[in-house]
Amino acid sequence: MDQGIGSVTAGVDGSRAGQDAAAWAAREARRRKLPLRLLHAGTDSVPERAAEELACAYPQVEITVIRARSPAAKALLTASSGTGLLVLGTRGFTGFAGFPVGSVALAAAARASCPVVLVRSGERSEDERDAVPGAPPDEAPYLPVVLGVDLERPAGALVGQAFCTAAVRPAPLHVVHTWTPLCPDRGAPAGPACCAETAAEEDTRRHLLAVWLRPWRRRFPGTAVETEVVPGRPVQQLLRTCARAGLLVVGRRSGSGRGLGEVAHSLIHHATCPVAVVPYD
């Protein structure tokens, strides 16, 4: 189930955002039955205090403190080659959909060897769940994991990460594929021919998505999967879908100089739930 992940690593710096991200990482480590590593670039007592607090809240999780001698950005990238999941915090805008992401977090998301989860400040354990009136928060069902896919560049690492993440909660998986219809005269109202062409393309893409997901459904039979194939802008459609999600999973092409890409960059800044960025070839 853990896709070969040997540990979960969280970067801590003494900020509220880092503390909330470390708590998210601890919950994920507990779900996956993996150790948690707290990475800190400094000589103060920040990681020890964080470890003590998390040990009280999550006694089932084995926690180790790692001190880096290099600057934070370099330390995170080095750590990403020896862990399966890197978790970082970002500062949140209260009352707004977007939130600012620091240069260190962006660099890690763009260049890390492993998946990177960005968690906004203020994220709580109950935010991962669909509240049920009268029921304890930790017994409510998990909100869906949303996966954004590009059928032109199918990636096993990306879909595998999403299925595994949904399975360990357990949570339903909502797979979203979008594309921009190639109709002429974009400024004019769509005519019958254009609408028919879009509908035919949608049917084709829905079939391709079903075929692509078939082996993963067999591998994770206990995970409920919902698919959505819809024309439009990827960022807008994914933001709409993840408004009621526990996690958004998106991919980025790995390799020197590729960076995050426009879609992943926008989603990181504007999604209201944690965002997992998964590198793939």
UniProtKB/TrEMBL annotation:
Domain of life from the UniProt record: Bacteria
Native organism taxonomy: Bacteria, Bacillati, Actinomycetota, Actinomycetes, Kitasatosporales
Entry protein name: Universal stress protein
Protein family: Belongs to the universal stress protein A family.
Pfam entry (one): Usp
Start and end residues of each UspA domain: 53-120, 142-279
InterPro entries to which the protein is assigned, alphabetical: Rossmann-like_a/b/a_fold, Universal_stress_UspA, UspA
